[in-house]
Amino acid sequence: MRDGVKLALERLAERYDNLVVLDADVGFSTRTAYYGKIRPNMFFNIGPMEQAMFGIAAGLAIEGFKVIASTFATFVLRGYEIIRNSIALEDLDVKIVGTHAGVSVGEDGPTHQAIEDIAAFYALPNFRILSPADKYEVVSCLEYAIEDPHPYYIRVSRVSLGDIYRGIPKFKPCRVLIDGSDLTIIATGVVVYEAVEAAKELLNNFNISVKVIQVTQLKPFPTRDVLKEVCGEAVITVEDHNIYGGLASILSQTLLSSSASGIKIVPIGVPDKFGISGKSHDVMRKFGILKEDIIKLVKELTKNDSL
Amino acid sequence: MERLHSRTHKRDQVIRKLEGKARQIRKMIIEMIVSARSGHLMSSLSPVEIMVALYYYIMSPKDIFILSKGHAAPALYSILIDKGVIPKEMLHKLRKIDGLEGHPRMNIPGIESPSGSLGIGLAVAAGRALGKKLKGEDGYVYVLVGDGELQEGICWEVFQFANARNLDNLFVIVDRNGLQLSGPTELINPMEPLDMRLKAFGFWTRTIDGHNFEEIIDAIERGKRIQRPKAIIAHTLKGKGIQELEWNVNGHLMKISEIEEMIRRYWEE
Predict the structure, then answer these.
(1) Cβ–Cβ of B128/A82 closer than 8 Å?
(2) pLDDT exceeds cutoff 60 at A305
């Protein structure tokens, strides 16, 4: 999915001559280094100095530049207080791209697998949060965010399990990807693909009709649009993030304060544990956030009217 | 001989004026904090000469000043009130609702960076210095940091960055008053030799008496001739201006009523 960053920066470089991209020594992994090849005087790898990077980003934004500051999501959090007390506090025009989000990172293990970043940014005033599902959506998210002069946190995975879109989609805070009626799955990020595949298999093999809603904009949460589409008596949330503080929590809070508060919510995500090293797919299987896990849960929820 | 004499005479006049301004600003700071019954009096008093030199003599419209040592906000606010940038009535509204924020915020006129959390103003200063260079703009970014503040790691990250990018439009001024929140700096985290530390990080460094206008102005003028990031270590007295507070570690723990008594005596002298 991170290849979307390269594609986005190539396109943005053509549109903006005042875009500065900051990196903290991981530009080849996050793909921001490609911006350095197109605009060498506007790309700064400052080395692994995350705290300084976000303060410098704030200064550049105050000077009128468009700023993208990027590193691994876990290391974005090293600069969290700096972000909070400059970018968030003063509502500055800085886009923070946290790559390698979730346990799907795989081999590098838990120190590099952010499972709490959505939670961290959800509670920060002024921050918007975007969570694209594939490399094409990374582009539309970045292009959308750049136009809005406020702080954004954009969460990108290292891997992609499959593309959702065939080209760069129009930006939408949420989308119904598959229509259905028995039950709703709400998914975000890299695991949206798993939700879509699960829904297809459930319909074809088990005649269970599941609606899949993708949420791209986690904050501000598109409450009205999501509530309008929720159907059936249960909602399963799917995310490559802790079940606490991410999509499941956001949705729970949203539903509880609405007329849909009677709906049962069952979260699929990282069960409040740190990740482990392994191949990406193996790790995701271990934490139960793949297609098979979704199918199993849907079947449990729909058998014998257990709803 | 005569030209030299008149130049020195002119400089003397300037210095007298600046010293008078410093006294005035100190009075405003005291009034502001006593009115608020809250605030960092000692920390606001130590950098007054530095800030007066900058705002009333050194800075041109192309330059900016960032108070990274944000808790000295009363000093900056007083100067901005004196210059008519912040409305006069705010002198008695420090830390009050609809008044002046306890630490600088950018929606206050004349404030160039948020601060209050140590080291952030410094990082913003470096970002702004870089930004000015990218735009081809002249002008210096002056940033005041505390010595306790320099214990934050982010400061040294910023110095590495300034060195790597040769931000020669960045002037870091250290308010070296030797005290931090919980006591003397040298008892908590010995910082000497501070000048060697800064030099090792690539900064042209000068050490001065932070209450001496001649030395402040001279150091900055010298620094401008150097094509490297610059640091000035300004030795100061916390609480400067009120004798009993100068170098009093407990100064900031005193009750406002005790301080009021001290100030009353000071004013009457």
Answers:
(1) no
(2) no
